[in-house]
């Protein structure tokens, strides 16, 4: 049997960044699945609200200060996150290292504030449907912050090790930055449901 070379890909790099990377597509699929989970939680929230004679059920609206402060920090974090992504595309190791340290801090601070958020919900998770859904929403989003923080800490460690020489790590940093943007954007409708819809 005679073989004919259709396309020589031997000169292509062994890794890619952005849409050229399978990891990028995997991260997008992961965000699609998780976004569907958030959408389902929001749908359940409004379904329960439609059944309740008054909303919130047997509780005052949640305190605004911790959640609003957390939201402001998340929105501010987008700026250094975009810079980290840009520096990763440029393969600027020094700036990427600094950016990852900043993003590690900006990933940890919301977890501290999240602890205060649970306190000011003014209802236990098992008190009624309202308590259950808002605790679920906060719990889901907390899981995403923790997931990205762990990923950022691991990448920070890798970029300060001998593995920083591997160009693929820059693609990983870029994918991690994209995921953090998802974590921030996903929080906005949850924040509105938990803190502002009960005040309407």
Write the layout of secondary structure elements.
Layout: H1 22-51, H2 65-90, H3 93-119, H4 129-159, H5 168-196
Helix pairs in contact: 1-4, 1-5, 2-3, 2-5, 3-4, 4-5
Which keywords apply here?
about 200 residues; mainly alpha; 5 helices; elongated
Q: What about the largest sheet?
A: none
Q: Compute the gyration radius: what is it?
A: 21 Å
The number of distinct β-strands equals 0
Mean pLDDT across residues? 92
Helix content: over 70%
Shape assignment = elongated
Strand content: under 5%
Number of helices: 5
Poorly predicted regions are none
Class by SSE composition: mainly alpha
Our measurement of the CA-to-CA distance between the termini, rounded to an integer number of angstroms, reads 74 Å
Written as H for each helix and E for each strand, in order along the chain, the element string is HHHHH
Would you mind describing this structure in some detail?
The protein is mainly α and 200 residues long. 72% of the residues lie in helices and 0% in strands. The chain has helices spanning 22-51, 65-90, 93-119, 129-159, 168-196. The chain is elongated and about 75 Å long. 28% of the residues are buried.
Brief sketch in words of this structure:
The protein has 200 residues and is mainly α. The chain has five helices and no strands. It is elongated.
